């Protein structure tokens, strides 16, 4: 029937990692997560086209939250979950996570996920995580990757694992954040310290693209 064909078409569009989420019953009270999915940049910034949005970033964050709860056993109340986060929201969320790590006095296990635009400073080559209301011309309001990492290891913890679904060459997951000019910069690799582990979707000169 047409309804069955429609259901099959929809099922073929859903990635298996979105549905085959391993489930375990343990709850870990000392685990925390910061999950950010920044997709809609156009509505917050004049001069950007729809291609500047980061396709599927909100969905990526939503699914990662399910992994955090069902697979990693993180209590939902200990997850900071942001979608289409503005600069103040991102900085507040990172500060909140920093405070939670401090209160755990070395016992915290932390997972961070960011899907959205990264961007390089053309002069310093430093990478930035970009809120939806910040462009490549306003990096002073963005989150410098070096400062972001410093907040995560400022206080002792058992582990901090970061997943970055972004690129820092200036190309973005779709199009760049500076209209009318192409930016291609090899971003400086930021050194990580202590027990901080980073999984990145791209190297310094690569682009991260969506799987349609």
The counted number of beta strands is 8
Question: What would you call the shape?
Answer: globular
| N- to C-terminal distance | 26 Å
Spans with pLDDT under 50 lasting ≥5 residues? 178-183
Radius of gyration: 18 Å
Number of helices: 5
- Helix coverage percent: 25-40%
Largest sheet: 5 strands, parallel
> Strands across the major sheet, in which order?
2-1-3-7-8
Describe this structure in words.
The protein has 212 residues and is an alpha/beta fold. It is 26% helix and 18% strand. The strands form 2 sheets. A 5-stranded parallel β-sheet has the order 2-1-3-7-8, with helices on both faces. The chain has a 3-stranded antiparallel β-sheet with strand order 4-5-6. The protein is globular, with a radius of gyration of 18 Å. About 3% of the residues have low confidence.
Short structural summary:
This protein is an alpha/beta fold and 212 residues long. The chain is built from 5 helices and 8 strands. It has helices at 2-13, 16-19, 57-70, 87-103, 145-153; strands spanning 31-37, 79-83, 109-115, 118-120, 127-129, 143-144, 159-165, 196-200.
């Amino acid at each position: 029937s047409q309804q069955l064909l429609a259901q099959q078409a929809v099922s073929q569009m859903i990635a298996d990692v979105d549905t085959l989420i391993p489930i375990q019953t343990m709850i870990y009270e000392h685990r925390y997560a910061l999950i950010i999915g920044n997709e809609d940049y156009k509505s917050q910034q004049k001069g950007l086209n729809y291609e500047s949005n980061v396709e599927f970033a909100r969905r990526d964050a939503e699914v990662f939250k399910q992994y955090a709860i069902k697979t990693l056993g993180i209590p939902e109340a200990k997850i900071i979950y942001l979608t289409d986060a503005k600069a103040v929201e991102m900085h507040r969320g990172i500060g909140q996570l920093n405070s939670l790590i401090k209160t755990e006095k070395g016992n915290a296990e932390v997972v961070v996920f960011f899907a959205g635009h990264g961007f390089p400073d053309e002069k310093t080559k430093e990478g930035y995580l970009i809120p939806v209301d910040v462009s490549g011309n306003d990096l002073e309001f963005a989150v410098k990757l070096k400062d972001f990492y410093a907040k995560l290891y400022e206080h002792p913890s058992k582990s901090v694992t970061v997943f970055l679904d972004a690129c820092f060459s200036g190309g973005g997951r779709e199009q760049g954040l500076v209209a009318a000019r192409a930016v291609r910069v090899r971003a400086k690799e930021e050194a990580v310290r202590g027990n901080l582990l980073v999984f990145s979707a791209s190297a310094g000169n690569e682009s991260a693209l969506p799987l349609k």
